[in-house]
Amino acid sequence: MLRSSIDLGTNTCLLLIAECRPTSFQIEKVLWDESTIVRLGEGVDQSRNLQPPAMQRTLDCLKKYSQQLRKAGGNPAETVCVATSQARDATNTQEFFRKILDNTGFVFKTLSGKQEAEFTFLGALIPGMNPQTSAVLDIGGGSTELIAMGDSMSLDIGSVRFTERFLKSDPVTDREFWDCQAAIDQNLENLLPWREKNSAATQLVGVAGTITTLAAWHLGLERFDAALINSTELTRGDVHRMVEELKWRNVAERKSLPAMEPMRADVILAGALILWRALEVLGFDSCRVSTQGLRYGVLQSKELMS
């Protein structure tokens, strides 16, 4: 059976269309997997409102996704559509959801931080990864989730949120950088009790645009290639070196890096800094990269069926 899902985040909007088994919803074949940077969460950290330009970018993207889905034989009304951190923070989310429904047929639900973490864990693990010995790190635009079997945490730190809050110069100043790092570390310290409950042998799995972009850069890819990126290992040292290079580059220079999406260049430093500090503060030597994540998890969920 054909199933589809949309993950509407603070920075990106992702569409997944796949053939799934009728009863278990296990994915048998991916037909379409697309990511578009819409920056819906632009300005939400300060204003607590979705901004008109961001909503228009998102609506334009969703109109395109609706057309793509119909061409594939799908129905927007049956698509599992979820929104995350920016939808939780903004006061005008439901008004925007009504406008989306009227224009595209997509019905959106806002996930709690706990739900986001659990569905991300379900979707992130690729063949060969043992769920019993894995933990998933999802760095989004507005929040970051860390998830193990039956145990998850969500923090309000993200690449867009912390760029807007701390990294305002181009290139960033030392003061901005150190203030951002200190705030990240302070938030991550809340996860130390979680870390102590998990084995030292736990393998960290990284998902979402920050981490897949860093992996593509690490591999020297000119464009995104899921087959090459999946299971790539980024060590703590690898990420630290990338953070240091991003720190001294301005946004225009970052856009020239391998596989860098132009609209991600301004927030990639904050995202990379969150990844490096997570590895450092929580005592992980490395993370393996997965190009899957929330959209895969919700697609296979019976709980979120329309």
Q: What Rg, in angstroms, do the CA atoms define?
A: 18 Å
Helix count? 14
Low-confidence spans: pLDDT under 50, at least 5 residues?
none
Largest sheet: 6 strands, mixed
Mean pLDDT: 92
The CATH class of the largest domain, by name, is Alpha Beta
Write the H/E string, N to C. EEEHHEHHEHEEEHHHEHHEHHHEH
**How much helical structure, as a percent, in the residues?**
40-55%
- Look at the helices and sheets and give the structural class: alpha/beta
Largest sheet: spatial strand order: 8-7-6-9-11-10
User: Which architecture of the largest domain per CATH?
Assistant: 2-Layer Sandwich
Total DSSP E strands: 11
**CATH homolog superfamily of the largest domain:** Exopolyphosphatase. Domain 2
Can you give a write-up of this model?
With 306 residues, the chain is an alpha/beta fold. It has 2 domains: 2-113, Nucleotidyltransferase, domain 5, CATH 3.30.420.40; 127-289, 2-Layer Sandwich (Nucleotidyltransferase, domain 5), CATH 3.30.420.150. Helix content is 44%, strand content 20%. It contains 14 helices and 11 strands. The strands form 2 sheets. Strands 8-7-6-9-11-10 form a 6-stranded mixed beta sheet, sandwiched between helices. A 5-stranded mixed beta sheet has the order 3-2-1-4-5. It starts with a strand and ends in a 7-residue tail after the last helix. The model has no long low-confidence stretch (mean pLDDT 92).
Topology of this protein?
Elements: E1 2-8, E2 12-20, E3 27-37, H1 44-47, H2 52-71, E4 80-83, H3 85-89, H4 93-104, E5 108-110, H5 113-124, E6 134-139, E7 144-148, E8 151-155, H6 159-165, H7 174-188, H8 192-197, E9 203-207, H9 209-219, H10 226-229, E10 233-235, H11 236-248, H12 251-254, H13 268-282, E11 286-289, H14 294-299
Parallel strand pairs: 1-4, 4-5, 6-9, 9-11
Antiparallel strand pairs: 1-2, 2-3, 6-7, 7-8, 10-11
Helix pairs in contact: 2-4, 6-13, 7-13, 9-13, 11-13
